[in-house]
Amino acid sequence: MQDTSVVDTQIHKISSLAGYQQSLNHLLVDSVNNGASIGFIAPLTRAQADHYWYSIECDLLNDSRELFVITEGSEVIGAVQLSLCQKANGAHRGEVEKLIVHSQYQGQGFAKQLMHTLEKSALQQQLKLLVLDTRLGDIASLLYEKLGYIEAGEIPQFALSSSGELQSTVLFYKLLK
User: Which of 57, 81, 51 is CA-nearest to residue 69?
Assistant: First the structure.
């Protein structure tokens, strides 16, 4: 009897959304509508997701952003972005953005795999510093700490929740070696 709980996945760095748009929309809508605090208010519509990914496509084309996806077959089940600083005095740093894993695949180590891939790419580009923020109390904070990110501080009333509450965010950084 074959173990059906094992998921056959691959991680890709994609430079165009061609062939991924619908799957990325599904991932983003699932994440936001299941409570992820990643810049959107639930309920997120497909049209809003389309608009967002269109703006990301522009960043991918001008090399100011990298997008890593983890797929099962042709379906994107997770993603993370590395935003590359465009300032002359910030070319050594990048920002981790939108680490998301589909709700049906959470808790299986995919976020960790995506982060390792992103960090490897950052090192290959000779980046020295990664920064990110996450909502205070999010489970993602535990992952970031396990991966060696250091909490730099907290900003109160940073983001509006879907229920209309202002929530704090926690800033993290990691010096790459």
Answer: 81
For residue 15, give the H/E element and its range.
Answer: none
The domain segmentation of the chain, as residue ranges, is 9-126
Tokens for 27?
């991932």
41-85, pLDDT tens digit by residue?
999 999 999 999 999 999 999 999 999 999 999 999 999 999 999
Gap between the Cα atoms of 157 and 67, Å rounded? 29
* Superfamily of 9-126 according to CATH: Gcn5-related N-acetyltransferase (GNAT) (3.40.630.30)
Within 8 A by CB and 6+ apart from 97, the residues are: 80, 81, 82, 83, 132
* Residue 102 to residue 104: CA distance in whole angstroms: 5
- Predicted structure pTM score: 0.94
Rounded Cα gap, residues 96 and 131, in angstroms: 6
Residues paired with 94 in a beta bridge: 84, 130
